[in-house]
Design a protein that fits this description.
The chain has 324 residues and is an alpha/beta fold. It is 27% helix and 14% strand. Helix 2 packs parallel to helix 7 (171-183). The structure holds iron/sulfur cluster (2 copies).
């Protein structure tokens, strides 16, 4: 039986999603039996021309991780879309922008200034920053990809067939998704390959979350010893479980760490708005001072509520002026 041709590509990512394939452990051997990886820059040395030479639709499935920040990433996403029967947005950066999309809170200029000019360890008296077009002293022309003003999620630039969030997706999630793809047992196109419920519903501390909960202040984990048997919210510790998609097996909660929301939003594209709405019903405080005091325990609200999903939020998806 001929093997299924598959590709894995990284856009604006940390490499963790590629690592999650390796985390399959011995299960990767069974996948290797059925799959021929024809393009995987993290693990092989293919050239873009290898993909360009393929027939349209020749690749059965492409797993694309990372968000879209540069013209090169957009080009590769579109190329793989054309060459692939199925495209999976793999990991939370591809699905929702991920941590790189927190950069949507600043601008391209802000990033370049900070990275190349103003960090305390930078020595750059001539103020040299990367340019898309430049010439070397010898007269050679050099081109760099365009760096976009905005970080996009994958389905902002190409049609995506399935979404597998996670930062990164764990081995079980990857094995289940690959099994479904290889068996052709897939939900309708456009689906998440994870349950459509909030993490709280499967969390083993859910029974300790009272029906009626009131929070007057948020405590930071660095200041308290969390009770490993009680719902974090019940202890006044922010946990993103109510606004986060289920499917990870809640390893963080099992490790006595609150959920930070890496599976992305459930029930709404705006994870932060959903969490704020959940908190709105349980936070107590009449005056601005009382609310401000309660929020003191959340020193980075945007980074807390939108850590993985800025590109799919109302806030972080508005800046489309440079949309490819
Ligand atoms: S808020 Fe967190 S700890 Fe509480 S039930 Fe939900 S996921 Fe579990
Ligand atoms: S518990 Fe939350 S942060 Fe941890 S893996 Fe699951 S979704 Fe991600």
């Amino acid at each position: 039986m001929s093997k299924v041709k598959a590709a894995i590509y990284w856009c604006s990512s940390c490499g963790g999603c590629d690592e999650s394939i390796v985390d399959l452990g011995e299960r990767i051997l069974a996948i290797r039996e059925a799959v021929d990886f024809v393009f995987w820059p993290c693990a092989m040395d293919p050239k873009y021309s290898d993909v360009e030479a393929m027939a349209d639709g020749e690749i059965v499935v492409s797993l694309i991780n990372g968000s879209i920040r540069t013209s090169e990433q957009e080009y590769m996403a579109k190329l793989l879309r054309r060459k692939s029967q199925l495209v999976v947005a793999f990991g939370s950066c591809a699905c929702f922008g991920g941590i790189p999309a927190l950069a949507n809170l600043t601008s391209k200029k802000g990033i370049f200034d900070r990275s190349y000019l103003t960090t305390p360890t930078t020595v750059n008296p001539e103020g040299i920053v990367p340019l898309e077009h430049s010439k070397t002293a010898e007269g050679y022309s050099m081109e760099l990809p365009s760096f976009y003003e905005t970080v996009y999620k994958l389905d902002d630039v190409i049609e995506v067939d399935y979404f597998l969030p996670g930062c990164s997706p764990n081995g079980d999630m990857v094995a289940n998704a690959m099994g479904a793809i290889l068996a052709g047992k897939l939900p309708p196109k456009g689906s998440m390959l994870l349950p459509d419920i909030a993490l709280c519903q499967s969390c083993d501390r859910n029974s300790t979350k009272p029906e009626s909960l009131t929070i007057t202040e948020f405590k930071r984990l660095i200041h308290v010893q969390a009770d490993p048997t009680q719902c974090f919210l019940n202890q006044g510790i922010l946990c993103m479980g109510p606004a986060t998609r289920d499917g990870c097996g809640f390893p963080c909660v099992k490790g006595n760490m609150p959920c930070t929301g890496c599976m992305g939003p459930v029930g709404s594209k705006d994870q932060g708005a959903r969490m704020l709405s959940a908190l709105g019903g349980i936070m107590e405080g009449e005056t601005e001072e009382q609310i401000a005091k309660a929020l003191d325990g959340i020193p980075d609200p945007a980074g807390t509520f939108y850590r993985y999903s800025m590109s799919s939020s109302f806030m972080g998806s508005h800046r489309k002026e440079n949309k490819p």
